[in-house]
User: Fold these one by one.
Assistant:
Number 1:
Amino acid sequence: MDTTELTHLIDRLRDIPDPVERTRTAAALIDALKDAQTRVKAVRADAAAELRQGRTLRQVGELLGVSPARVDQILRGK
């Protein structure tokens, strides 16, 4: 996955000359990222649940390259 756009956004944030505006914009970005993180975790949990159909946690873990315990955490949205 290419994260160039996110890196560019952060660089633009650093370039805001007014420290008040930069602080407020950073706070707004943090809030937006928290929301995005919640939504991305839900997508990941849904995908893991699809993989879980007919498979053990160990099998799903092998497909994803994580431990069975981590698969369980992902399924629970952690």
Note: The mean pLDDT is 95.
Number 2:
Amino acid sequence: MNLRVETADGVATITMDAPAKLNAMGRAFWPALRDALAALEADGSTRAVVVTGAGERAFSAGGDIAGFAELEGTAAKREFQRDCMRTFAAVEESPLPVVAAVRGYALGGGCELALACDVVIAAETAVFGMPEAAVGLVPGFGVLRAPSVIGRQWTKLMAFAGERVDADTALRIGLVQKVVPAAELAAAARALAGRMAAAAPLAVATGKALVNRGVDRGEYDHSTAALTALHGSADAAEGIRAFTEKRPPRFRGC
């Protein structure tokens, strides 16, 4: 996926720019987003970041599921999971405030990326979901972070039943902090980021670190181990194969 970075007046906008693929997250996406954030943190002029997706249909439809089949062996699967977690951590732990501007689908990794951001603004067209169980997986970061954002039961509903929530529901359960008309999304996100950029940067960075003080990086190792095991399971192999073949999966179960 291409990432497009534009800066103005202390606000950087990172756009996931693969609209034809609903901004799906391939393997190159994860280090690319980390690198983009690191460059903005080091440039001395950026004070806030907006993350969004190109096109009208999706923020991001999530990971490139067909690409999962290319991960051969336990070591490759484990490293992929660690790479994803490093990127979510980079967003959470960035000294810059990060605003997600969500239009259309935010599914799987797209929903998880929104969870990692500090504030989420959604267009009325936004739809959030964590459908990984349908292909024999779980959202490794989402199951860690969503309970503190939307509660344990809503997390289970979304992660186990694949429940999708619209913008108004997402606002009600705390996944989203503001809903605006789709035509106003970009301006609303930049305006909010601009207010953050106008604040004292050290105060914002310190406040973010304090608010996030309960975030435990040790959780990531547990999730990575679990997801690596799932990636190597027969159910995941069947789920990924069924997805690429566009048919219902036939899971064996425990």
Note: Residues 74-93 form the longest helix (20 residues).
